[in-house]
């Protein structure tokens, strides 16, 4: 039995329609039909495909490993995508396995940044009679970038995939995952929280953001993995 047939049988055994499974997993119905027909080219790569398979297995209460083994046998590729290499080297978490964002990690990054800026100011002012301004603007890097914008009591964020589809992970102040999956090209998703929201974007250059009704500047470049946190004052 092929992987697509296994998924189709598990869905029928669970008494769910394609639309039911789509609502439960946030995977488009058209893509689910393609997967059940053993067509995985529109999943966005091996990493996304495995994440979808795990998500489907969880919602259908079946063991994901036989499905993943079948995927490796039928769909596995000898050349891995850049995103797959990111996952294998722990630069990015695999879709379908949400991880809570630790406030301790964010606080540690902020403290380390302040220490570096302070040291730079001391070095520059000791070598010149006139203090040299030190820019705190962070240049986008090829690796993952994390930035906390602000904190507050309530925030609303509208995310639009304006230029391409992208992987998207949204969590609230408690670390609860509100969304974990792909946002399709042209699609808009809106989330709100009483305190703050954290976004992890697989392709920062693909999306536009409105925070509390205001358009914010680009959070990164094409292909860049970026994590940002927004609060009431963002």
Commentary on this structure:
There is one protein chain. The protein is 36% helix and 21% strand. The strands form two sheets. The protein has a five-stranded mixed sheet with strand order 1-9-6-3-4, with helices on one face. The chain has two domains: 3-88, Orthogonal Bundle (434 Repressor (Amino-terminal Domain)); 103-230, no CATH class. It has seven helices and nine strands, in the order H-H-H-H-H-H-H-E-E-E-E-E-E-E-E-E. The N and C termini lie far apart (52 Å). Residues 90-98 and 128-143 have low confidence and may be disordered.
The gyration radius over C-alpha positions equals 21 Å
How large is the share of residues in beta strands?
Answer: 15-25%
What is the mean pLDDT?
80
Q: What's the number of helices?
A: 7
> In sequence order, what are the helices and strands, one letter per element?
HHHHHHHEEEEEEEEE
Query: N- to C-terminal separation?
Result: 52 Å
How are the SSEs ordered, and which strands pair?
Layout: H1 3-13, H2 18-25, H3 29-36, H4 46-60, H5 64-75, H6 82-88, H7 103-126, E1 145-148, E2 155-161, E3 166-172, E4 177-183, E5 188-193, E6 197-201, E7 207-211, E8 214-215, E9 226-230
Parallel strand pairs: 1-9
Antiparallel strand pairs: 2-5, 2-7, 3-4, 3-6, 6-9, 7-8
């Amino acid at each position: 039995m092929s992987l697509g047939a296994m998924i189709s049988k598990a869905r029928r055994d669970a008494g769910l329609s394609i639309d039911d499974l789509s609502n439960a997993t946030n995977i488009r119905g058209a893509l689910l039909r393609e997967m059940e027909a053993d067509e995985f080219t529109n999943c966005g790569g091996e990493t996304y495909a495995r994440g979808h398979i795990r998500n489907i297995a969880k919602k259908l209460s079946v063991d994901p490993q036989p499905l993943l083994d079948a995927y490796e046998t039928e769909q596995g590729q000898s050349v891995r995508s850049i995103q797959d290499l990111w996952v294998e080297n722990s630069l990015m978490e695999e879709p379908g396995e949400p991880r809570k964002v630790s406030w301790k990690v964010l606080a540690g990054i902020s403290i380390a940044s302040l220490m570096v800026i302070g040291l730079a100011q001391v070095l520059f002012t000791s070598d010149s009679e006139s203090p040299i301004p030190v820019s705190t603007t962070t240049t986008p890097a090829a690796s993952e970038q994390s930035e906390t914008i602000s904190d507050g009591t309530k925030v609303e964020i509208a995310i639009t995939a304006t230029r391409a589809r992208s992987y998207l992970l949204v969590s609230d102040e408690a670390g609860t995952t509100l969304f974990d999956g792909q946002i399709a090209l042209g699609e808009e998703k809106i989330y709100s929280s009483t305190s703050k929201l954290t976004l992890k974007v697989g392709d920062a250059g693909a999306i536009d953001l409105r925070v509390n009704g205001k358009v914010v500047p680009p959070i990164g470049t094409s292909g860049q993995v970026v994590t940002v946190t927004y609060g009431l004052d963002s």
